[in-house]
């Protein structure tokens, strides 16, 4: 399905070395995604080049930014598994939690994880704001990440409660995120975070991305996250 040598070169250009086994896993991922997409709406991107660049490479951009010693990552609103599953392919020792509110996507991710031979992956059906209040998940992760889920102020309230003190929250955003950052500044501070970097990236087709890096510098107040209605209606 994928052009393995091209995928190897694309990843290497971003500082990520992929072995033959990892390329085999990505190939299996692509085939499984396309097959499953015929039965449920997982992605609008099903062509080979699109999967290589806009799913796999786009997700791999996160990997070099992960803090040294990162052992656990939660992908919030993971959908078809981006970026979490791709990060797990690149970093096999990563303990990965995939959280999604739609059961059929969680079922797909469970089957995918088995198909790729993964260990150390937990697939959870649930809403982010409920998970963020669960003692088993709250402030338990080195890294929380989300891709194309919501505005940054909303996303911060969904994700920062999962991050342990000293950990990171990475938001994978589009080409323009300056206004979002301004709107989200007070929310991020209130939730215990501090923006420590915005990492611009460019895909081979020339489209640009930004990965916003937030460090957890203090514990999230216990009243957050609020319920979904309040988060969406009245962002912090």
From TrEMBL:
It holds the Pfam family GidB. S-adenosyl-L-methionine binds at residues 77, 82, 128-129, 147. SUPFAM superfamilies: S-adenosyl-L-methionine-dependent methyltransferases. The keyword Transferase applies. Keywords: Cytoplasm, Methyltransferase, rRNA processing, S-adenosyl-L-methionine, Transferase. It is found in: Cytoplasm. It comes from the Bacteria. Transmembrane segments: none annotated. GO terms for cellular component: cytosol. Coiled coil: none annotated. GO terms for molecular function: rRNA (guanine-N7-)-methyltransferase activity. Its EC number is 2.1.1.-. Its main location: cytoplasm. InterPro entries: rRNA_ssu_MeTfrase_G, SAM-dependent_MTases_sf. Belongs to the methyltransferase superfamily. RNA methyltransferase RsmG family. PANTHER family: S-ADENOSYL-L-METHIONINE-DEPENDENT METHYLTRANSFERASES SUPERFAMILY PROTEIN (PTHR31760:SF0). Specifically methylates the N7 position of a guanine in 16S rRNA. NCBIfam families: rsmG_gidB. This is Ribosomal RNA small subunit methyltransferase G.
């Amino acid at each position: 399905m994928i052009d393995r040598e091209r995928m190897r070169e694309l990843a290497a250009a971003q500082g990520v070395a992929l072995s033959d086994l990892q390329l085999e896993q990505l190939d299996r991922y692509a085939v499984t995604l396309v097959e499953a997409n015929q039965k449920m709406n997982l992605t609008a991107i099903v062509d080979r080049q699109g999967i290589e660049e806009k799913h796999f490479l786009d997700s791999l951009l996160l990997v070099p930014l992960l803090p040294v010693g990162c052992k656990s990552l939660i992908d919030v609103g993971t959908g078809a598994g981006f970026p979490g599953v791709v990060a797990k392919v690149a970093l096999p020792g990563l303990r990965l939690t995939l959280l999604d509110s739609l059961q059929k996507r969680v079922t797909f991710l469970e089957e995918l994880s088995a198909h790729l031979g993964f260990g150390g992956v937990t697939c959870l059906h649930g809403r982010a704001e409920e998970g963020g209040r669960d003692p088993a998940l709250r402030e338990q992760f080195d890294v929380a990440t989300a891709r194309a889920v919501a505005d940054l102020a909303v996303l911060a309230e969904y994700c920062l409660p999962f991050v342990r003190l000293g950990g990171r929250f990475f938001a994978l955003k589009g080409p323009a995120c300056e206004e979002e950052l301004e709107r989200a500044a007070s929310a991020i501070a209130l939730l215990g975070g501090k923006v420590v970097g915005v990492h611009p990236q460019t895909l081979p087709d020339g489209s640009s991305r930004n990965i916003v890096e937030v460090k957890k510098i203090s514990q999230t107040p216990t009243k957050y996250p609020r319920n979904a209605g309040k988060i969406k209606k009245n962002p912090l």
